[in-house]
Specification:
Elements (H helix, E strand, L loop, with lengths): L19 H24 L1 H8 L5 H17 L1 H14 L2 H21 L3 H4 L2 H29 L7 H30 L1 H8 L1 H19 L5 H8 L7 H6 L2 H35 L5 H15 L1 H13 L2 H24 L28 H19 L2 H8 L5 H17 L2 H12 L7 H17 L14 H5 L7
Helix pairs in contact: 1-5, 1-7, 1-8, 1-10, 2-3, 3-7, 3-19, 3-20, 4-5, 4-7, 4-19, 5-7, 5-10, 7-8, 7-19, 8-9, 8-14, 8-15, 8-18, 13-14, 13-16, 13-17, 13-19, 13-21, 14-17, 15-17, 16-17, 16-21
Length: about 475
């Protein structure tokens, strides 16, 4: 790892076949819709968990629901392997279409799925099967989108152009929150709990159709097309990516020095913040969704800002700074937010005129604006760690195995380390009785990642990927990769 990284002098040919704007829009739109599908599950946890899982307690039902939700994250690395291999063997465009279709079909099916009251435990079992298919599809989506855009982008602008993909996950969450709010306000609270929760799942079929139409018009990545026409594509992407000690070393470094920290920061700042507002601070559904949605809206341009900045000053320390800030400030942020919660603790509750205990009363210090400010601060950490990471991962690996090599660490970091934040957090809270124990996991993972990244990560912004090479090839040409 001590050798210097070479910079190629060739210039890219990114926009000859199709405009970079169209490339970004098609990749970003499709990824946003897939994330929309995925987030619906998390956003509706408190509403419909008991419709599919009946453990005897509301907390138990939510834990069971989150476990089903987590299954989709756990299988994402397998999807990265399967679809990454397809993307490196056949092409980026074809893989785009397959992952999108699979994801959309599964989400639509959830909207039609009978509940536990109708088919018993089979409701939860079928839901898990659909989540597995969704996770596999999403495992192949991000690597393809990032690779596709980066292989069209001019040298020196990859951070800026790929950062537009980074906003899609956030916009997907924002879109899901918007659809849920509109549906909830349109049909009323009781109807939403009874059947209206199905609407966001069913609407996804129209969004998928639009995205497929857009992606059908795309051409193959110019770098991959050039590689394929010359017969230099990988014959075995899995072996070259993970069976080669040199490449595997950088797969591991990408995971433990960058992506696992980014993953926990991302899920804490967005999804876990929403979960805390609803579960620990007892905010109503509309209030909590509006707070998170508005914070996301204001923070979204920062993804592009930090992506652009990473082209100028480098990607490493921008990413690591988001992790460091999270470790240092998560605990004081959440303890301060607690002062502005919606409901007082049960111990502080009163009794009604008949002498019946009231579960909670509204906190006189409840302040949704302050809660939104703190969520926005956490979103800054998200944009710091997430904005440059697509370009960073693309630059680490050569064209012929890029899709496979970058997808696996990304989806382990986000799907496993990040995706398990809610269920590990709730389990820690239940086990300890400490409402802030759920922060231990993201703070610990981000702290370890920062240390590894600070010591071992090198800057990648000057690597020229148009020479069919990545950081690994620039450092050493291993026999299995010649």
């Amino acid at each position: 790892m001590s050798a210097s990284w070479k910079v190629q002098s060739t210039t890219p040919e990114p926009e000859q076949a199709q405009g970079i704007g169209k490339v970004i829009f098609a990749s970003a739109a499709g990824t946003m819709i897939e994330w929309y599908d995925f987030y619906i599950f998390g956003s509706l946890a408190t509403i419909i968990a008991s419709k599919f899982y009946q453990t005897g307690t509301p907390v138990g039902d939510i834990i069971a629901w989150l476990a089903a939700f987590a299954v989709g994250f756990i299988v994402r690395p397998f999807g990265a392997i399967v679809f990454g291999r397809i993307g490196d063997l056949i092409g980026r465009k074809y893989t785009f279409l397959v992952t999108m279709t699979l994801m959309g079909a599964c989400t639509f099916a959830v909207g039609l799925l009978p509940t536990n009251d109708v088919i018993g435990v089979w409701a939860g079992i079928i839901l898990i099967l659909l989540r597995i298919l969704q996770g596999l599809a999403l495992g192949g989506e991000y690597g393809g989108a990032a690779t596709y855009v980066a292989e069209h982008a001019p040298h020196g602008k990859r951070g800026f152009y790929t950062s537009w993909i980074q906003i899609t996950a956030t916009l997907g969450l924002f879109l899901s929150l918007g659809v849920i709010l509109v549906t909830r306000l349109g049909v009323g609270e009781e109807a939403f709990k009874a059947w209206g929760w199905r609407v966001p799942f069913l609407i996804s079929i129209f969004l998928i159709g639009i995205s497929l139409y857009i992606r059908m018009s795309l051409q193959e990545s110019p770098l991959f097309a050039k590689l394929k026409s010359s017969g230099r594509t990988s014959k075995n992407p899995l072996k070259e990516s993970f069976g080669n000690a040199y490449n595997l070393r950088y797969v591991a470094l990408a995971l433990f020095g960058a992506v696992m920290g980014q993953g926990v920061v991302w899920y804490t700042g967005q999804f876990y913040a929403l979960f805390y507002l609803q579960q620990q601070f007892k905010l109503p559904l509309v209030d909590s969704n509006l707070i998170v949605g508005i914070a996301i809206l204001f923070a979204t341009p920062l993804f592009v800002l930090f992506g652009w900045l990473s082209d100028k000053i480098g990607r490493k320390w921008i990413m690591l700074s988001g992790m460091a800030l999270a470790v240092l400030t998560y605990y004081p942020i959440f303890t301060t937010m607690y002062q502005y919660r919606y409901a007082l603790d049960p111990a502080q509750a009163t009794k009604d005129a008949a002498g019946n205990a009231i579960p909670y009363v509204v906190n006189p210090s409840y302040n949704p604006v302050m809660l939104g400010v703190f969520v926005f601060i956490m979103m800054i950490y998200v944009t710091l760690s997430y904005g440059p990471i697509a370009a960073f991962l693309v630059e680490m690996f050569p064209t012929r195995i890029r899709y496979t090599s970058m997808s696996l660490p990304y989806h382990i970091g986000n799907g496993v380390f990040g995706g398990l934040v809610p269920i590990i957090g709730l389990s820690l809270i239940s086990a300890t009785g400490n409402r802030f124990a759920g922060l231990w996991w993201p703070m610990g993972v981000a702290g370890v990642c920062f240390i590894i990244g600070a010591i071992f990560l090198r800057e990648t912004k000057d690597v020229d990927i148009t020479a069919e090479r990545g950081v690994v090839d620039d450092i050493i040409r291993a026999p299995a990769m010649d």
